[in-house]
Design a protein that fits this description.
This protein is mainly β. It is built from no helices and four strands. It has one domain. The protein has a four-stranded antiparallel sheet with strand order 1-2-3-4, with no helix packed on it. The model has no long low-confidence stretch (mean pLDDT 88).
């Protein structure tokens, strides 16, 4: 089996990945540095990652309330029903 790159996180450390049964690739990016990054991203066709699920979920920064945002994710799982 040959390996192929489907997405790159550039200079941001990715700590976990999950692939859904539908073939969607998700990754999480803990906020360990000052580099702005989404906490959860979905691989985009152009090879990078876009924030998932979008909206304010990935917009947490110090000083913002954490109750309705991803702050620092450390794990992902895609189940057989395509739930992340």
């Amino acid at each position: 089996m040959d390996l192929m790159s489907v997405a790159s996180s550039g200079n941001v450390m990715m700590t976990n990945a999950a692939v859904s049964p539908a073939g969607r690739l998700f990754a999480n990016f803990p906020r360990w540095t000052e580099v702005p990054t989404p906490s959860v991203g979905e691989a985009a066709p152009e090879g990078g990652f876009r924030p998932f699920p979008g909206g304010d979920w990935n917009e947490w920064r110090p000083g913002l309330p954490p109750g309705d945002r991803f702050v620092c994710t450390h794990g992902l799982h895609a189940d057989r029903d395509n739930n992340l």
